[in-house]
Amino acid sequence: GESVGLHLPTLSVQEGDNSIINCAYSNSASDYFIWYKQESGKGPQFIIDIRSNMDKRQGQRVTVLLNKTVKHLSLQIAATQPGDSAVYFCAESTGYSGAGSYQLTFGKGTKLSVIP
Amino acid sequence: EAQVTQNPRYLITVTGKKLTVTCSQNMNHEYMSWYRQDPGLGLRQIYYSMNVEVTDKGDVPEGYKVSRKEKRNFPLILESPSPNQTSLYFCASSIGIGAYEQYFGPGTRLTVT
């Protein structure tokens, strides 16, 4: 996983601050979105998901916002910690309704670096 | 412990020598999938399976084969590996198709010389 972070947009955040990671998706028919976190040397790990009939969903320290009008997704991490340092991917699917594709299409990712 | 396992974790091989990367999950998941991850390209789906004996192509299936004879196993087969298949490979599974989170394995780093 060491090479995953190369050539990626990077967001540097001070420990304790809030982080906002953005994702623009391409398919207006997408109805399901997921955020994944990938730490160095590991596989992606599910963080939070949101259906297209929602515009906001909250988890533990994380919030996902969905703006279908401009096809934009964001992940907000509150009180960012050093353990949050990772590459974050958004993914979209048209499968929620059952009428579309079951495939997840992943974004290129954003590297989050937390400064202690 | 619920998990997706892959073997081997690291593999260096030569062009044309057939290889298999195994994937196994212990969660009784119906849906399994293979991805490759390359710098600047993100995760791209190779093949997926919605259940036993049901497989379908993803975005980049050329040069790969899969099989799903048992629910828990989903091996990825490279009949004649080439250097452009050098990549980091991930297997994933989920309880069903569509809107379900996928659980990823730890990855297999393959180098083809």
How many extended strands of chain A? 10
Proportion in helices of chain B: under 10%
Integer average pLDDT of chain A: 89
Which class do the helix and strand fractions of chain B yield?
mainly beta
Strand content of chain B: over 45%
Largest sheet of chain B at a glance? 7 strands, mixed
Mean pLDDT of chain B: 94
Report the order of strands and helices of chain A: EEEEEEEEEE
Distance between the termini of chain A: 23 Å
Radius of gyration of chain A: 14 Å
The SSE string of chain B, one letter per element, is EEEEEEEEEEE
Radius of gyration of chain B: 13 Å
Q: Count the strands of chain B?
A: 11
Name the beta content range of chain A: over 45%
**Class computed from helices, strands and strand pairing of chain A:** mainly beta
Tell me what you see in this structure.
The complex is a heterodimer of chains A (116) and B (113). Chain A is mostly beta strands and 116 residues long. Helix content of chain A is 0%, strand content 48%. Chain A has no helices and 10 strands. Chain A has strands at 10-14, 19-24, 32-38, 45-51, 56-58, 62-67, 72-77, 86-93, 105-106, 110-115. In chain A, the strands form 2 sheets. In chain A, strands 1, 3, 4, 8, 9 and 10 form a 6-stranded mixed β-sheet that branches. In chain A, strands 2-7-6-5 form a 4-stranded antiparallel β-sheet, with no helix packed on it. Chain A is globular, with a radius of gyration of 14 Å. By secondary structure, chain B is mainly β. Chain B is 0% helix and 50% strand. Chain B contains no helices and 11 strands. In chain B, the strands form 2 sheets. In chain B, strands 2, 4, 5, 6, 9, 10 and 11 form a 7-stranded mixed β-sheet that branches. In chain B, a hairpin with an 8-residue loop joins strand 9 and strand 10. Chain A binds chain B through residues 1, 3-4, 6-8, 31-32, 34, 36, 41-46, 49, 51, 89, 91, 93, 95-96, 98, 102-109, and chain B through 4, 31, 35, 37, 39-45, 48, 50, 58-59, 88, 90, 92, 97-99, 101-107.
